[in-house]
Specification:
seven-stranded mixed sheet; three-stranded mixed sheet; 10 strands; 387 residues; alpha/beta
Length: 387
C-alpha cells in the first residue's frame, strides 16, 4: 500500500481541499457507474432464460388485446398476431363501443381465423371503464391458462414472437419481454427510442437480479391462476398499473422468466413528436411513487452518481492543474467507452440498431430530463390517471 500512501501525501501537499474532494467524488462516482453498467445493466446481454422446470413443451396461449374501433390495428397488427407460427393459441379481442361495421369485419376475420375470439363491451354511463376492467373481461373469456398481453398500438417484431414468449412459461408463471418504439429517422425518433430503451434496461436488469417490478403492457404474460390467486388487479382507482404495480404484486425471483431476443420484441407505434412522448411518459410513469423504496433508490443512485461524476469532472477540467485534467479526461473517455460498449451489447440482444449519438446525448442530459419528469408529475396533476 505504499503507492497509495504516496499518492495520498502528494494530494495533501500539492492540491487544495476543494480539488481533493472533487477528485474523490469523480473517482467514487466513476466506480459506481462502472458497477451499474458492467455489473448490473451488462447482465442483460449475457442473460439466458431459466431452464424449464416442468414440461419442456410450450403450452397453449391466449393473447389478449383491448380494442376501441381501430382500423389500422384491424388491417395491420391483428393479422400479424393471428398468423404467428405456433401450434395452439387464440387471440381474444375485447372490443369497446365498436360500430356494427367494425364488428362485421371482425366476424369476417373470425370466419377466416377460427382462433380469433371476440368479446364485446359497451361503455357504461354510470361509471368509468378503464383498461383493467376490459382486461379482466378478456382474462375470463380466455380459453387457456397461459396469457399474453399486447395492445393495438404495437405489433410483433416477427412471426416467432409468440413461440419465444410462450417458451418462457416453461420456467415461469410471469413472462417479461421487451417493447421498443417504432424506428423512425430524425432527432425526436432517436430520443424516444433511447428513453424507452433506458426504462426497459432498468426494469429488465432488476428482474434478472431477482427483483421484478415492471414489464411492458405491450409484451407481458402471466397465468390465469396467478391473476385470480391475487384477486385480480390492484389499484383499481387508477387507470394505470397493470404492467408495473400489479407485477410487483404477483412477480417474484422464483416465478418470473425474461425473454430477450430480437424476434421476441414488439414495436410500439409512434403517434406524435417529443411533446406527445413526454405526455405519454408522464402518464405511464405516474405509478413510480408507489414503487418499493429499494427500486426507487436503485434508479436514483445511477442518475445521481452520473450527475455528480460529470459535475466534478467539468469543474476539475476547468480549474485543476494539467496533470489532473489529463487524469479526468482518461476517466471520461474510458467511462464513455464502457457505456457505449455495454449499450451496444444490450441493443444487439434486444434488436435495437443504431442510437449511438442519442445514447451519448442521453448519457449527459438523462439526470436532468428524468428529474424534470419527476418534478412535472409531482407539481402538475396528470389528467386521466384517477377514475
Amino acid at each position: 500500500m505504499e503507492w497509495f500512501e504516496t499518492i495520498y501525501n502528494d494530494l495533501i501537499a500539492n492540491y487544495s481541499a476543494w480539488t481533493r474532494w472533487l477528485i474523490v467524488i469523480a473517482i467514487v462516482t466513476y466506480g459506481i457507474q462502472l458497477w451499474y453498467y458492467a455489473g448490473r445493466y451488462g447482465r442483460i446481454a449475457s442473460y439466458r432464460s431459466r431452464k424449464p422446470y416442468g414440461s419442456p413443451t410450450p403450452p397453449p396461449v391466449s393473447i389478449i388485446v383491448v380494442v376501441e374501433e381501430d382500423y389500422a390495428f384491424l388491417e395491420g397488427a391483428l393479422p400479424e398476431l393471428l398468423e404467428q407460427e405456433y401450434t395452439q393459441f387464440e387471440v381474444v379481442l375485447v372490443t369497446i363501443d365498436t360500430s356494427e361495421e367494425y364488428n362485421d369485419q371482425l366476424t369476417l376475420l373470425s370466419a377466416r381465423y377460427p382462433h380469433l375470439k371476440t368479446t364485446r363491451m359497451t361503455r357504461p354511463a354510470n361509471y368509468a371503464l378503464n383498461n383493467k376492467l376490459a382486461l379482466n373481461v378478456g382474462i375470463k373469456a380466455a380459453q387457456y391458462e397461459h396469457l399474453l398481453f399486447t395492445t393495438t398500438e404495437s405489433r410483433p417484431g416477427s412471426r416467432q414472437w409468440l413461440a419465444l414468449m410462450a417458451r418462457g412459461f416453461c420456467a415461469g408463471d410471469v413472462v417479461l419481454g421487451y417493447c421498443g418504439v417504432e424506428r423512425t429517422r430524425g432527432f425526436s425518433g432517436g430520443i424516444m427510442r433511447t428513453t424507452n430503451l433506458w426504462s426497459a434496461i432498468r426494469s429488465l436488469s432488476s428482474a434478472i437480479r431477482g427483483v421484478p417490478y415492471a414489464g411492458s403492457r405491450h409484451n407481458i404474460g402471466y397465468t390465469k391462476s396467478l391473476y385470480f390467486g391475487a384477486k385480480g388487479f390492484n389499484h383499481l382507482n387508477m387507470n394505470i398499473g397493470e404492467d408495473d404495480l400489479f407485477i410487483q404484486r404477483i412477480a417474484t425471483r422464483y416465478n418470473t422468466n425474461i425473454i430477450l431476443s430480437p424476434n421476441a420484441t414488439v414495436r410500439e407505434d409512434r403517434q406524435g413528436g417529443l411533446g406527445w412522448w413526454q405526455r405519454r411518459r408522464k402518464f405511464r410513469t405516474y405509478g413510480y411513487k408507489f414503487y418499493p423504496t429499494a427500486v426507487k433508490n436503485g434508479i436514483r443512485w445511477e442518475l445521481f452518481s452520473r450527475l455528480l461524476f460529470y459535475t466534478a469532472a467539468v469543474i476539475l477540467l476547468a480549474t485543476a492543474p494539467m496533470e489532473i485534467q489529463i487524469g479526468v479526461g482518461v476517466l471520461i473517455v474510458t467511462r464513455l467507452f464502457i457505456v457505449e460498449f455495454e449499450m451496444w451489447r444490450i441493443r444487439k440482444r434486444l434488436g435495437e440498431g443504431g442510437l449511438f449519438w442519442p445514447i451519448m446525448l442521453y448519457d449527459v442530459i438523462g439526470p436532468f430530463t428524468e428529474f424534470g419528469l419527476w418534478l412535472s408529475r409531482n407539481l402538475k396533476p396528470v389528467p386521466g390517471i384517477w377514475r
